[in-house]
Amino acid sequence: MSKPKIAVTVIAIVLVALVVFYALFVACWKYFSDQKGKKEKVGILDSSTGSFEPDPEIESPLHFKEGAFKIAFITDVQDAYPLNSTTKAFIFEVLRREKPDLVVLGGDNCVAKYTDLDEGKEENLTDERKEELTEKVKNLAIKEICDIFVGQETYFTLVFGNHDHEQGMDDDHLLKLYQKHGGKFCLAYDPVPALTGTATHNLTIKNTAGNKNVFNLWMFDSNEYEGEGDGAVCTDQVEWYVKKSNELAAASGGMLPSFTFQHIVDHNVMDAIFYRAPSFAGNIGRKTSEATYWLPLLRFGNFNGFVREVVCCGYYDHGMHAALKENGKVLACFSGHDHICNYITKVGGIDYINTSACTFHAYKEDFLIGCRMIELDENDLTTYKTRNVFVTDYAKEDGSVLNTFGDMTQKQAIRAERKRKALALFGGEGY
Questions:
Q1: How far is CA 360 from CA 8, 23, 220, 401, 405, in A?
Q2: Are 275 and 285 in contact (CB under 8 A)?
Q3: Which residues lie closer than 8 Å to 193 by C-beta, 6 or more apart?
Q4: Straight-line distance from the first to the last Cα atom of the chain, in angstroms, rounded to the nearest whole number
Q5: What is the Cα–Cα distance from 240 to 244, expressed in whole angstroms?
Q6: Tens digits of per-residue pLDDT, 396-424?
Q7: Residue 353 belongs to what H/E stretch?
Q8: What's the pTM?
Q9: Where are the strands (E) in 147-232, listed by range?
Q10: Distance CA 39, CA 207 (A)
Q11: Strands 292-298 and 330-335
């Protein structure tokens, strides 16, 4: 056989092997994804019998200060009890250095369970004992998180994520613990408990003078797994949003410019980030109710930043994106959930922005661990600025407290930062 024929044969074998490997990979991914979609909510503490009353709509204390307003978006802390020391120190440093006017916790905020306690490791625990220990550990863990914000006198609010819904505790009860331990600094509330999910709410921001609402923040529970994929903001929540938007517009002389925050991104981002799988490829890739996407083929140029894993978007479209477009004043939608995705893309004139996880407990890419800062200028509310603050930013410093806990040394931080900068050449700046 001639050398050219040998070369062609080798190339053909390699291509066939790659196709087989990819097919096996997709089959395995689909199997485990389907298993995840079948999970049922565990309810040790079930308070869904209507015992919780609607929270009164709060008078938002938020306002611009000398024409500026700053938000820290911290998502997917997803930690046990006690909270990881590096994560805790990082959040504290963000508050100390950045001095945000508000922190938004983006979901999967706490996954502490009774087995985190020594008593919870005992054998043959009764369901009643598990319930007692779940209540105990959730109080301890949520208090530890809230104490960071209370200690720095920083307002915070939150949305719930899919893992928050799996904590063996009714979501309404979980919200009450944040309100209890956050005190006046916790601005999360549940004005309409009948809505799907928990704590879908809004917070207005007044001008510097404090006499007029000039901006609005929407918080949506994107719920649990649904269909063959992840959860989404549901129809009744969208209807509430439209009604509330109109009420605010009537009271403020027009639609207020706004941001939205939810844990799981709307699936309308998929066409902006991925190519759809060709029909001959069959049912492979990431599915939504409308299409299947060819995962390895990213639409570079349509987004800035990093897409380091499958975008686990909502499976169904319940009309949220269409409602946001109709509003006309929504500048950006912020999400988390995908721990190692950190990107900005535009869909229908709205920025969709995902922020990577702030965790050393769940799966992660060291160079992406951090949070997102969002800055508003009262003189021009048609735009905003956003940037990331990564753990590496602080851990690379000489004498930094962040490189003393063993999760990220100074050398690791420097290497991780170099990796991030190198990979940014492919994804573009602006992440």
A1: 47, 32, 25, 16, 11
A2: no
A3: 52, 53, 54, 172
A4: 52
A5: 6
A6: 999 999 999 999 999 999 999 999 999 88
A7: strand 350-354
A8: 0.88
A9: 156-158, 201-206, 213-220
A10: 45
A11: unpaired
